[in-house]
Amino acid sequence: MAKLRIGVIGLGMASAPHAKSLLDLKDRVEVAAAYSPTPARRKAFSEAYGFPVCDSAETIFDDPSITAVMILTPPNTHLDLTRRAAEAGKHVLLEKPLEIAEVRARALVEAAERAGVKLGIVLQHRFRPVSEALAGLISEGRLGEIVSASARLDNWRPQSYYDQPGRGTRARDGGGVLLTQAIHTLDLLISLAGLPEEVKAYATTSKVHRMETEDLAMAAIRFPGGAIGTVSATTCAYPGHPDEIDIIGTRGMVRLGGRSLVASFHDGTELSIEDEAAGGAGADPMAFPHHHHRAVLTDFLGSVEDGREPRVNGREALKVHRLIDAILSAAASGEPRRP
């Protein structure tokens, strides 16, 4: 099978795990060109990974030999770049979040659908081996009926993180801890327990940071069928701890940590699984291996080759945007909201 030729747009901090994944999968994918508007970033990226670079995004969009585009730019650029890729007939692998607001996120998804191109979203927590093991336990009925599902993210980001231009602003990022960090954990929660039907919440910018958007959010959630749970997300928790998801069922309970799964069942049996890859909860947000990004890319390549949908496509990703918007709206209004 011929290698899929891909273009990369955006060579900032988020590009490292993707570049390593592309190198690992060089027998299946070839980087035709990589672009950043910053010459220094193009030079550094080329020297670090050996990929060819170009000085214009149009070079990638106009090349008929390029089948797909990896978009790793700030959130407020995603709609325009995805539209341009879709109009050029190129499949898109897009870094989270979809966009800075749900209306723009929905327009992005619809642009890809109209063009008939595949749209994969980088929400790599679903691809953790421990996450996949928990999904299996739920589908097999080992936990019974879910009565509670909760998610907790205790990250740490120093003020210097938010001092970078655009960080934590509505104009560039669209939000704070929920849309930038907790989106991974919340997407995983939804994939396991479903989308909640009601949210009550608080969100604030704490005294720990100077920033425009929230660095601390808490919510109570209720799922269809009656299960309840909580969401807690912050970048104030020094020195940072792995995210956690707790699911309680009528036959047992499971706690999913950043790299571990521990389950206890009413029949007296237990299950414990460890995953070697974890990190990114502390001051260095990129302090993690690239294994799960490689799994995302592998799935995306398979979707293009086989003509199927990526595991996390645009419609799937819209669900977590709806939940985040509901949390922020409930916090602002003091009233319950439906995602």
Nutshell version of this structure?
This protein is of the alpha/beta class and 339 residues long. It has ten helices and 14 strands.
Question: Could you explain the architecture of this structure?
Answer:
- This protein has 339 residues and is of the alpha/beta class.
- The chain is 35% helix and 27% strand.
- The chain contains 10 helices and 14 strands.
- The chain has helices at 15-24, 39-49, 57-61, 78-87, 102-115, 129-139, 159-162, 177-193, 291-306, 314-333; strands spanning 4-9, 29-35, 53-54, 68-71, 91-95, 119-122, 146-156, 198-204, 216-222, 228-234, 236-249, 252-256, 260-265, 270-274.
- β1 (4-9), α1 (15-24) and β2 form a beta-alpha-beta unit.
- α1 packs across α9.
- The longest helix is centred in the C-terminal third of the chain and has 20 residues, at 314-333.
- The radius of gyration is 20 Å and the shape is globular.
- It starts with a strand and ends in a 6-residue tail after the last helix.
Q: Care to count the β-strands?
A: 14
**H/E order of the elements?**
EHEHEHEHEHEHEHHEEEEEEEHH
Residue share in β-strands: 25-35%
Unreliable stretches (pLDDT < 50, length at least 5) are none
Helix content: 25-40%
Count up the helices. Answer: 10
Largest sheet properties: 8 strands, mixed
Shape: globular
Mean pLDDT: 95
Q: Label the structural class.
A: alpha/beta
- Oligomer state equals single chain
Give Rg in angstroms. 20 Å
Side by side, the strands of the main sheet go 8-9-10-7-11-12-13-14
N-end to C-end Cα span: 43 Å
